[in-house]
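Researcher: We're reviewing a set of sequences before deciding which ones to prioritize for further study. For each one, I'd like a predicted 3D structure that I can look through quickly. This is ATP-binding protein. If possible, include the structure in token form so it fits the rest of the review sheet.
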Amino acid sequence: MGTEGSTVLSPLWRGLPPIAPSAVSGSASCALPPRFEAVRTARRFTRTTLHQWGLSVLFDDVALVVSELVTNSMRYGLPDGHPAGPDAETPIRLHLMRWTSRLVCAVRDPSEESPVAGEADASAECGRGLFLVESFSDTWGWHPLTGAVRGKVVWALFRLPRDRD
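Model: Here's the predicted structure for ATP-binding protein, in token form for your review sheet.
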């Protein structure tokens, strides 16, 4: 877990609505192991980061979106047969970026496949993740990564409230 500089995060900005990269007032990221317990780690990291930034009021909505994005990366973003033991590498990364008026949560995984919104019937236990992301964030999207790091980034943007904590 840690804070990253703007040069590392610049590929994450591609595809987002126009926001000057120089206007970033905070960024933090967390490597997540390829195990479903990582969703709990991502939520805890999100809670701590939002609290440090004075944005605790956003936690419920942002944590729901982070949970869905990380779950989708675990379910669909890892190659078949990827090791999932305690010593497995961390191919999934959660990034939180704060601008003056916006917050972006972005999840990077090794898959280059586009996310697909499912159509779940009322009794289905899964298939609503991207619908929830769309419902609780102001906008979302994704883009493939190019260069040395392969895969994709799925992101969700939240407008920040004027009055915080």
